[in-house]
């Protein structure tokens, strides 16, 4: 099984973060991870009333991971994911908060449907 | 000549802003507009030591304009562009500042080469 790629904090580029968070589905996934650490992929197959196909979900996680927004860890057949918010906020102060606020969501307070 | 499309401030979507600013060339152009209002297209053909082809430049301006980041106005054969920072900062507090800071650039202080 291929190892999962995670950029070192100093290699994270703002353009990759902005690109990753320019997709509202990825923002919704990321917001759930910010709200509650360690969510598994399968627990995230529903976003509101929409079902995200497993292949799209897995691609969303890859983009989030490779941009440096989340950390993923294989646990048996599951993948556990958590946000890298704390690290990111040191490197890019205020960036993630401003983005989530702009989407009408604050860290820890997913948008009510 | 087709009229230029500018979204109303309330129609500006965070995903369009993030996508527009996920390209470092567009960020460099936008930063110059934030620094000095009313720059013309042709004055922006150089970014540092790189020359941006006219066709790419015109596409960058279109993406910036249609995402709501800049306002463009035809003046004879020239196009004058200015950032919509003030409006944007009311709608999405802190967002543009955090993004430009993340790129190592602050509004009004373009990165020194």
UniProtKB/TrEMBL annotation, chains A, B:
Q: What SUPFAM superfamilies does UniProt report for this protein, alphabetically?
A: Winged helix' DNA-binding domain (SSF46785)
| CDD domains in UniProt | HTH_ARSR
As one GO molecular function, the record gives: DNA-binding transcription factor activity
Give the highest taxon in the source lineage.
Bacteria
Check the record and name the Pfam families matching this protein. Answer: HTH_20 (PF12840)
Residue stretches making up the HTH arsR-type domain:
16-97
Q: Which InterPro entries match?
A: ArsR-like_HTH, HTH_ArsR_DNA-bd_dom, WH-like_DNA-bd_sf, WH_DNA-bd_sf
Official protein name in the record? ArsR family transcriptional regulator
């Amino acid at each position: 099984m291929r190892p999962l790629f995670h950029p070192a904090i100093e290699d994270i580029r703002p353009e990759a973060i902005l690109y990753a968070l320019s997709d509202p589905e990825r923002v919704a996934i990321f917001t759930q991870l910010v709200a509650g650490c360690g969510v598994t992929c399968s627990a995230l197959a529903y976003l509101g009333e929409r079902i995200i196909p497993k292949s799209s979900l897995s691609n969303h996680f890859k983009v989030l991971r490779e941009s440096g927004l989340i950390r993923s860890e294989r646990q048996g057949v599951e993948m556990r994911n958590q946000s890298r918010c704390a690290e990111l906020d040191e490197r890019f102060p205020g960036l993630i908060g401003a983005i989530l606020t702009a989407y009408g969501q604050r860290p820890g307070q997913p948008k009510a449907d």
